[in-house]
Prior knowledge:
Layout: H1 18-23, E1 28-32, E2 35-38, E3 43-46, H2 49-52, H3 61-73, H4 85-97, E4 102-108, H5 111-128, E5 136-140, H6 149-154, H7 158-161, E6 171-174, H8 197-206, E7 211-216, H9 232-243, E8 246-250, H10 264-268, E9 274-277, E10 289-294, H11 295-304, H12 322-337, H13 340-356, E11 364-370, E12 373-378, H14 387-398, E13 401-402, E14 404-406, E15 409-412, H15 420-439
Parallel strand pairs: 3-13, 5-6, 5-7, 7-8, 8-9
Antiparallel strand pairs: 1-2, 2-3, 4-10, 9-10, 11-12, 12-15, 14-15
Helix pairs in contact: 3-12, 4-12, 5-11, 8-9, 13-15, 14-15
The chain binds pyridoxal-5'-phosphate (PLP).
Pyridoxal-5'-phosphate binds next to α5.
Amino acid sequence: MTVKPNSLEELWMPFTANKHFKQEPRLFTEAKGVYLTNHRGETLIDGCSGLYCIPAGHGRREIADAVHKQILELDYSPPFQFGHPLQFEVARRIAAMTPGDLDYVFFANSGSEAVDSAMKMALQYHRAKGQPQRVRFVCREKAYHGVNFGGTSLSGMVRNRETFGPLLAGISHMRHTRPPEHKFVMGQAETGADLADDLQRHAELYGGDTIAAVFIEPIAGSIGILPPPKGYLQRIRQICDQHGILMIYDEVITGFGRLGENFACQAFGVNPDIMTLAKAITNGVVPMGAVVANEKVYKAVTEAGPAKGIEFFHGYTWSGNPVACAASLAALDIYEKEGLFERAKKLSTYFLEQIASFREFGIVTDTRGIGLLGAIDFEPVDGKPGLRGYEMLQDLFNNGLLARITYDTLILAPQFISEEKHVDEMCDKARAAVRRSMNRPQLRAVG
Ligand SMILES: Cc1ncc(COP(=O)(O)O)c(C=O)c1O
């Protein structure tokens, strides 16, 4: 169905420069495989898997058929005190993919909801264990944990927080994991594991037994792909264990194969107690999020409840919605049948070499990457951080590449079905845009 809107005025767009967008709109009208079509009928290559969520490519018939069938068979099932078979099956499939005893899956509808659900789970776990004083959370600068009040409070991206008042109390931030000495390091840096000792300092400052959980994106994604230094996550795990703090991974971007393993915890060999998922859980096609808890957390919460009473007073109208579950099962089948995580792993080396090659440009101040996640920082225009990035986003849209831009950072996160030729196409288009940016008089970095 192609709809041509008669007015752009009424829509208030998320994380968008609304006023400017409405002067120079960027609309997508179709998508298939690794390509999208814009409102002028031009083709763009998808360099960011939509928004890190469509690894198996656009327009997958298997998912469309599964969703269609499910709507006709059972379109909705109330999630509180009732169930339907598909949600148990998705939970079983995810539990089989996770390591260790991360076996209990709670459904939400987005990454933000998953994060807030995980916060509540942590609080209730400690209450069930007789430690209700554990109400603090520790997280990191530059983190992104979604946009609900819990996740906004955990986040460390300044623009996402500054407008919204005092946010939740009892949340403190450790340093991020990209110190200046890691400039141009691709993959995990050899140094910097000691940044994890910030957690120990927070435990000493606030009392380790007041902290409910530490939230970590194994790779800080939205800010521009900050991989953890070698040994960092291991150290965080040790400090958590020492103080009885739950370790929570936000795997909304890294989950489902981005690093070539099912989840980042497997890629890094360090398991959390709880992890949050979303995005690729349905190949991005139907909104869905999940929280996976280990046995210790699930059992503590459920066993503390009465025999016939609700144990966790939390859930959403669309938790485990049958249509989302159908999409998820179809997506998980595709990932498995087509060996897509393995493909992602194979493509990663080539992809990261290409990202690293952007170092040749004078305006590039850092390159980073791991798995199928790569980022390139550009020198901001004096006094106008974000302007170069925004102009590049427009320029790329007009020249055939969908990339993610955060401030003056360009992020590429190819679909797992991409081939080397697609990476070449993305990077050639990005290089041409960098050259244009360098040549645009008003964007020439001053000083
Ligand atoms: C690590 C992380 N957590 C949470 C979220 C929020 O997810 P959503 O936009 O689905 O609410 C995101 C979104 O990009 C994310 O990257």
